[in-house]
From TrEMBL:
GO terms for cellular component: membrane. InterPro entries: COX15/CtaA_fam (IPR003780), COX15/CtaA_HemeA_synthase (IPR050450). This is Protein required for cytochrome oxidase assembly. One of its GO terms (molecular function) is metal ion binding. The lineage of its organism: Bacteria, Bacillati, Actinomycetota, Actinomycetes, Micrococcales. It is found in: Membrane. It is a multi-pass membrane protein. The chain crosses the membrane at residues 53-70, 82-103, 109-131, 152-173, 193-213, 225-244, 250-273. GO terms for biological process: heme A biosynthetic process. Keywords: Cell membrane, Disulfide bond, Heme biosynthesis, Iron, Membrane, Metal-binding, Oxidoreductase, Transmembrane, Transmembrane helix. Pathway: Porphyrin-containing compound metabolism.
């Protein structure tokens, strides 16, 4: 939940033009880790500082998870090591965030920042799912066709999310009013490519849902796939509405939240296609 939360607050920083609310990093202003308030102060520094503070909260949660799993000798070494990934990710994200400020919100760096966040959402979902599983050998609960479709779904999702980042990087929301540089691509063309990836994802997901029903797969993967389909359709609807209404900030923020929810739902769905015994 906190990984998804940081995606939302990071989006709020960008969409409110607060990306350079703190002029430097790791300090907010030279000589101060907190905003320097004066009569001309806007709310931008407070929003950016709030996002940095939430990063600390995510870090505390990540430390707790790492300690909990690394000291649990009942679990496999691989699972315990996986518990340290979110903590390492928080450190990496803090560095990327700092670089993005120092480079005045270069869209490539900001895009990497978003993709790493989504990767951490996926890893956190895996940790949560595996918490209730054993560490025995992996046993598929669906046929090879459904498993292959699940793998294809992940591949399409990677392309889909990457294109989404490029769409945002070529659009109007740079994170600060003074940020002029955007990706030098046709935003309409890249939006159409992103939409094509969305429809490809929906097609592959539809094939997975039909296959699971046809093969009388267990209830858990069928439910997970249907939930993923619902999240995907809602996300697609928001995407089209925001495109045809001029990219209003609130809808772009909802779309970013949807990307995080889709990532978590996808990871959960793929995991339901197999099981581990205790």
């Amino acid at each position: 939940m906190v990984q998804i939360g940081i995606v939302v607050t990071g989006g709020a920083v960008r969409l409110t033009g607060s990306g350079l609310g703190c002029s430097t990093w790791p300090q907010c202003e030279p000589g101060s880790f907190t905003p320097v308030l004066h009569e001309a102060t806007t709310w931008h520094p407070l929003i950016e500082f709030g996002n940095r503070t939430l990063t600390g909260v995510v870090g505390i949660v990540a430390i707790a998870v790492a300690l909990l799993l690394l000291t649990d000798t009942r679990r496999s070494r691989a699972y315990r090591r996986l518990g340290a990934v979110p903590l390492a990710g928080v450190v990496v994200q803090a560095l990327i965030g700092g670089v993005s400020v120092l480079l005045h919100l270069d869209p490539a760096v900001v895009g990497v920042h978003m993709l790493v966040s989504l990767g951490l959402v996926a890893v956190s979902t895996v940790l949560l799912y595996r918490w209730s599983e054993g560490d025995g050998p992996v046993r598929p609960v669906v046929g090879p066709r459904a498993r292959a479709t699940g793998q294809a779904l992940v591949a399409v999702a990677v392309v889909l999310l990457a294109l989404g980042v490029v769409v945002t990087g070529s659009g109007p929301h740079g994170g600060d009013e003074e940020v002029a540089y955007r990706f030098e691509v046709d935003p309409v063309l890249i939006a159409k490519l992103h939409a094509a990836a969305v429809w490809t994802f929906i097609g592959v997901l539809g094939a997975l849902v039909v296959g699971l029903v046809r093969d009388a797969a267990p209830a858990r993967p069928r439910r997970a796939a249907v939930v993923l389909l619902a999240v995907t359709l809602a996300q697609g609807l928001v995407g089209y509405v925001q495109y045809f209404t001029g990219l209003p900030e609130i809808l772009v923020g909802v779309h970013m939240l949807g990307a995080a929810l889709l990532t978590a739902s996808l990871a959960w769905t793929v995991l339901t296609l197999r099981e581990r015994s205790w």
